[in-house]
Specification:
This protein folds into two domains: 2-49; 67-127. The radius of gyration is 27 Å and the shape is extended. A three-stranded antiparallel sheet has the order 1-2-3, covered by helices on one side. It has helices at 28-49, 67-80, 84-114, 117-130, and strands spanning 2-4, 9-13, 22-25. The protein has 144 residues and is mainly alpha-helical. The termini are far apart.
């Protein structure tokens, strides 16, 4: 939470989830009420859309892996000079960032393929029409 001195309000946002749930209030008691209301609204919206609301992760993860994978991970962590927990954290973080960047690249490609050439031309024409036009040039010696 942060305090917005200009508007004299407390501003909050639910962290560690992809959905954007934000809320604000002028007092701590109203802030808490608005927090619960914002979360309830998000849960209701998810129900209407037929999806489950995302929950923040606890940071605790129990994995079941074959003993050979466990042994290999222990050795890799030891070679890296870190605990198995730290090694697994780094491996999972790296893998999740890689997948996220691939998803972003894929989504950008999909957005580009959605617009047809005529739609792009219309968008370019609209952008050109709303741009600031330069004043007309005065005829000078070079134009004569």
């Amino acid at each position: 939470m942060t305090f917005d001195a200009e508007d004299k309000i407390i501003v909050g946002r639910v962290l560690d989830i992809d959905d954007i749930i934000s809320f604000h209030a002028e007092s701590v008691s109203d802030f808490e009420v608005n927090f619960h209301s914002a979360v309830d609204d998000c849960v209701s919206a998810c129900e209407q859309l037929g999806s489950a609301p995302e929950k923040p992760a606890s940071g605790k993860l129990m994995l079941r892996v074959p003993p050979t994978v466990h042994a290999a991970a222990l050795k890799a962590a030891a070679r890296s000079g870190v605990s198995l927990n730290k090694w697994a954290e780094q491996a999972l973080s790296s893998a999740s960032r890689k997948l996220a960047s691939q998803r972003v690249a894929r989504d950008k490609g999909l957005l580009r393929s959605v617009a047809t050439k005529s739609e792009l031309s219309k968008l370019e024409a609209a952008a050109h029409a709303t741009s600031i036009k330069a004043p007309p040039r005065r005829a000078g010696k070079a134009d004569a």
